[in-house]
Design goal:
Number of helices: 9
Strand content: 25-35%
Strand order of the largest sheet: 7-2-3-6-8-12-11-10-9
């Protein structure tokens, strides 16, 4: 508990000039000052507690504890759609942030933290939509998360939600007043960006996706930037292949993967005898397939209820998804497999009873599906094929060379 020294506060806020007269008069004046201070102290504390952090003025290299508070709800972890290559610290419903005087209450504020373990092929490994955010309620839980991801204890960027057209317009006016007119983003309808070299900052205004993104680019590429909401930005001389290779420098090469699990896909798309829609979580746990899998739970942030249970084997890019019992999510006899994903065939030892093989060309797969009279949905200019198999859908994925490389069923 912090002790408040009224004498010091009296000197700081009331600053009596000179108190003349006998000692008892001086003492009475001090008492009167203290009583007055006690009356206005709540106002002083209230004003100080309402001080907001101006995100527009951050250097974007501040320690995490300087820009966040455990009085707010802090979520830390991975959200691959938002940005797959950084650890994210999301602040929910905070009242402490503004942007150059514009109140940001009610907007999502997401800070970016450099994390070595996320410099990998996470966007494909997790199917482009993986969420694994956990609440950090104290410094120990925060430190544990940072250690888990081999992350720094400072930020290098912030992503600000802009829900309304009015907020987007007001923020754009502030940006243009400070930095001039932005450069048109060729990848979106209304996106703009600024390369502020004197401040080592990139600023991306992405109203089409309700985002303002500001980055300290000291340790980033100076020629390239990519995320889902902005596309690839070329600042001049961008080598996209080299840039992406650097983002994924810690990705496991398929040829270096060891202990590949044996997988057999039958004619009905069941996997190793595990049947989508019928096999329970309890049966999966007891199966020979359950090796190196980690059980994960996805919660509804608003209600705290369990949305989904899944098992992940990140090393082999191999995942199982379970529909959760409405009565008791902890009852493994009532949770059923409702999908699975194998994102990289080269990391597993896989065979198909219907004649499919890893590495088949796109055209060869189409011919085989026609021959087997398997109904599929043709998608022009896409690197996947959707197969109609009620009550679920099979998606066959192809790599950059249009060779069969992975699959997803759900």
């Amino acid at each position: 508990m912090k002790v408040i020294n009224l004498d010091r506060l009296t000197e700081r806020y009331l600053k009596p000039t000179e108190m003349k007269g006998p000692p008892f008069i001086k003492r009475n004046i001090r008492i009167m000052h203290k009583l007055l201070l006690l009356a206005i102290l709540p106002l002083i504390i209230s004003c100080k507690s309402q001080e907001k952090i101006d995100l527009a003025t951050l250097n974007l290299d501040e320690p995490i504890e300087k820009i966040s508070s455990f009085n707010d709800r802090l979520l830390i972890g991975v959200e691959t759609v938002e940005y797959p290559f950084s650890l994210l610290l999301e602040v929910e419903k905070s009242k402490k942030y503004n942007f150059d005087g514009i109140d940001l209450e009610g907007q999502r504020i997401i800070f970016l933290i450099d994390a070595e373990k996320l410099k990998t092929d996470s966007i494909t490994r997790f199917g482009g939509g993986h969420i694994d955010l956990k609440e950090a309620q104290n410094i120990n839980e925060l430190d544990e998360a940072l250690k888990c991801y081999d992350a720094e204890s400072k930020i290098y960027g912030v992503r600000i939600e802009m829900k309304t057209a009015e907020l987007q317009s007001n923020i754009l006016k502030k940006l243009e007043a400070k930095y001039g007119r932005g450069t048109k983003n060729p990848n979106t309808d209304n996106g703009l960006y600024w390369n502020i070299k004197t401040q080592n900052k990139f600023i991306f205004y992405a109203p089409d996706y309700s985002r303002l993104i500001m980055l300290n680019n000291t340790d980033l590429s100076k020629t390239c930037y990519w995320d889902i909401m902005n596309g690839l930005i070329d600042f001049g001389g961008c080598n996209n292949e080299k840039y992406m290779a650097d983002l994924m420098k810690n990705a496991t090469k398929p040829e270096d993967v060891k202990g590949k699990p044996a997988i057999n896909i039958d004619k009905d798309w069941n996997i190793n005898g595990l049947i989508v829609g019928k096999t329970t979580e309890e049966e999966f746990i007891k199966s020979v397939t359950n090796k190196r899998f980690e059980r994960m739970i996805e919660f509804d942030g608003a209600t705290g209820k369990t949305n989904e249970i899944y098992y992940q084997n990140n090393y082999h890019d191999f995942y199982f998804y379970f529909a959760v019992s409405k009565n008791n999510p902890d009852n493994q006899k009532e949770n059923f497999i409702n999908g699975y994903a194998i994102n990289e065939f080269r990391k597993v030892d896989i065979s198909f009873e219907n004649g499919l093989k890893p590495g088949l060309k796109f055209e060869e797969v189409l011919k085989l599906l026609d021959k087997l009279k398997i109904a599929y949905h043709p998608v022009d200019f896409a690197n996947f094929i959707e197969i109609k198999t009620l009550p679920y859908k099979v998606t066959l994925n192809f790599n950059d060379n249009m060779l069969l490389s992975g699959m997803f069923i759900k």
